[in-house]
Amino acid sequence: MGDRPDPRQEAARYLAERDLPPEQRGQSEERTPTWSTPEERAAVVEQAIQQAIRRGDFDDLPGAGKPLTGLGQSHDPDWWIRQKIERENLRGLAPPALALRVEDAELTERLDGMHRESDVRETLEDFNRRVKYARLQLLGGPPVVTALRDVDAEVAAWHERREARACAAREAAARAEAEAPRRRGFWRRRAR
């Protein structure tokens, strides 16, 4: 195995040191470096960055050499995390107020992909339940302003949109059939 530490020994060392007083912990291993001034720390950090540049750790990063989008618009201290969430299509990381707003904006399209009324009702009731629960939570963050959905009205609208899509599909099929050239069967052409 060579110089690689045994995970069992590392776990045992951790458990043994966990029970020691704070001043005795970590004496057997190297301690993290401490700097006496912020300037020393900045110099060490700058040196680490320069070494990473020389190794090529920052080469071929997405957006390299391109200006940052959205600069100069409104001041948003969390712009970088919002872009990360949008770029990687991450879900479930936002506070409930923001996650529910996004889900509310996409809910109609999601409902249109469903085939049964019971699924639509269940989805709407679940959405309303989560909105009510988020309103009751006092965890901080932005307030929950997402409106509840009227289940019966949404189901009726779902039926209307579904019927409109079916009617449009029937009309498109009828137009395509009318515009398609009439084909004669093989035996009819042969008979001539």
Question: What's this entry about, in short?
Answer:
The chain is an all-alpha fold and 192 residues long. It is built from seven helices and no strands.
Report on the structure:
The chain is mostly helical. The chain has a domain at 97-179. The chain is 58% helix and 0% strand. It contains 7 helices and no strands. It has helices at 7-18, 38-55, 79-88, 96-112, 117-136, 151-179, 186-191. Helix 4 (96-112) packs antiparallel against helix 5 (117-136) and helix 5 (117-136) packs across helix 6 (151-179). The longest helix is centred in the last third of the chain and has 29 residues, at 151-179. The N and C termini lie far apart (86 Å). The model has no long low-confidence stretch (mean pLDDT 80).
Structure annotation, total helices: 7
In terms of DSSP E residues, the strand content is under 5%
Secondary structural class: mainly alpha
List the helices and strands in order: HHHHHHH
The radius of gyration is 31 Å
C-alpha geometry: elongated
* Helical content band: 55-70%
In terms of per-residue confidence, which ranges show pLDDT below 50 for 5 or more consecutive residues? none
Q: List how many beta strands DSSP finds.
A: 0
Ends: how far apart?
86 Å
User: What about the largest sheet?
Assistant: none
Write the layout of secondary structure elements.
Elements: H1 7-18, H2 38-55, H3 79-88, H4 96-112, H5 117-136, H6 151-179, H7 186-191
Helix pairs in contact: 4-5, 5-6
Could you list some keywords that capture this structure?
7 helices; single chain; 192 residues; 0% strand
